[in-house]
Amino acid sequence: MAWVSRYIGIGLFCTMLTGMAAAWVPPAAATGSADPHPPAVPTAAEFSDEAEVTLITILPGPAVYEAFGHSALRVRDAERGVDRLYNYGTFQFDRWFVPKFLYGQLDYYLSVAPFSAAVRHYEQLGRPVIEQALDVTPAQRDALIAFLRTNAQPENRVYRYDFLFDNCSTRIRDACDAVWPQAIDWSEAPTPGHTFREMLDLYVADRPWTTFGFYLALGPQVDREVTAYEAMFLPDFLLDAADHAYLDDDAGRRPLVAATDTLLWIDGYTHPQDAFPWPAAVMWGLLGVGIVLTAKQRHAPVNWADAFDRALFGVAGTAGLLMAFLWFISLHEVTNQNLNLLWAWPTHLVAAALLGRAVLPERYLRYYWIATAGSALVVLAGWPFWPQVLYSGLIPLVMLIGLRAGWRSGIAQPMLSVTPAPPSTSPSSTSPYAADTAAGDASGNGHASLQESSEER
To answer: What is the CA radius of gyration of the chain?
Structure first.
């Protein structure tokens, strides 16, 4: 049965790693439609009176990096033959992309592309496109176009991407603030009434492993309520905020958006629907396997027990190592103070490596297993009260860690023993704690059942 535990360990490792990786694929990303060296665009003074700037919102797509939608600005002047899309969500995907993103040092840039090509691209991806015409004066329009043209220059176009606070949507909001500082009014934008974590959940309801990864990687910073201004990090909420925004200037107070039009609709397009919670199901299944293993060990040795525990604690330690990296080494702030480290200790990797080895007598690990079991119990007892919202599907995994650590420590063995056993007189006892309990065995006290259980293991 050793192969069973190996496959379980590999599966659990892939589960946790895939979830965390999926969680950190950047939202609102675009790659293929942008031309880094577009044709020359007229200066603001060269645009005709028919020129306009519109806010473009692309709804979420099927890929993980498309799950949150996308925002861009369109500059159109039919008289001058200009129709360009200014896109702050462009990045170069190379071999260093994932390491840079995990470290928090990923650069995005503003690209300019023909609008017709961009629409064809999103049509191929099955993503609807919505346009909002901005009711701005010629001076305000020209100021925004000049801002975009300056930002698109090679020396200006690159910026340091931030998952929640500096992306394709917030850049557009900030551009409006920069060029119309006294005129733009976002104060009537609706407050979402959600935390950052809850807002992300809305977009990954059909991606349970991505949800799982978010809950593993993100700390308590994302469990505070989002303001209406902050909510504009998501394109849908920027669209809604623009609908409620006003311009207040010499021309009077008026809505920012003059008209809204659906430029492209995809038949059969639907918003994410709740999917079956596969991560939770897998965790409950693993707990079931652990309970069966522990029950079998009450009566006889189980030859795959060491391999199972090595896989379990190895995977938990690897997850903890990734969380510790995101907290202590990476530049991300929303991954700090991650309370999942209360159960996913990076040191579990060392403990897993020592299991079943002759390098160190196992009795020296007893206190480590006692601490591990105690920590798991504390995490479970405080689950509803922690300042960080923990993924409910992890409850069975934490229970399993506590159960197996308790058994390894010897604490759970007398509690799970069926009947007391006579002291063992065999000189070849397999119990890691036989030397510690020899005196108790000689006097016939309660340590006898602990030794028997250890021998069965």
So the answer is: 29
Is residue 262 within 8 A of residue 130, CB to CB? The reply is: yes
- Structure letter (DSSP) for residue 192: -
Beta carbons of 416 and 449 less than 8 angstroms apart: no
Q: What is the pLDDT of residue 43?
A: 60
| Distance between CA atoms of residues 74 and 86, nearest Å | 6
Question: Quick check: 31 and 87 in contact, CB under 8 A?
Answer: no
| Positions in the chain whose pLDDT score sits under 50 | 1-40, 421, 424-457
Tokens of 4: 């069973």
Q: What is the DSSP string of 337-394?
A: T-GGGGTS-TTHHHHHHHTT-SSS-GGGGHHHHHHHHHHHHHHHHTTTTSSSPPPGGG
| 427 sits in which H/E element | none
pLDDT of residue 8: 42
End-to-end Cα spacing for the chain:
15
Average model confidence (pLDDT) for the chain?
85
Side chain identity, residue 447 = H
Count Cβ neighbours within 10 Å for each residue of 180-211 and write b for 16 or more, e otherwise.
beebbebeebeebeebbbebbbebbebbbbbb
Query: What letter does residue 29 receive in the DSSP assignment?
Result: -
Per-residue model confidence as pLDDT tens digits over 411-422: 766 655 555 545
Run of H or E residues at 293: helix 278-297
E strand or H helix at 244, and its extent? helix 235-244
Helices assigned H by DSSP within 298-330: 305-324
Work out the number of other CB atoms within 10 angstroms of the CB of residue 92: 12
The residues facing 259 across adjacent strands are: 133
pLDDT in tens, 300-350: 999 999 999 999 999 999 999 999 999 999 999 999 999 999 999 999 999
Write the burial class of residue 133 (CB in 10 Å: 0-12 exposed, 13-18 middle, 19+ buried).
Answer: middle
Buried b (16+ CB within 10 A) or exposed e, 259-294: eeeebbeeeeeeeeeeeebebbebbbebbeebeebb
The DSSP element (H or E) to which 34 belongs, if any, is: none
| 3-state SS, residue 249 | strand
Per-residue model confidence (pLDDT) at position 27: 43
Residues facing 85 on adjacent strands: 74, 113
What pTM was computed for the model? 0.82
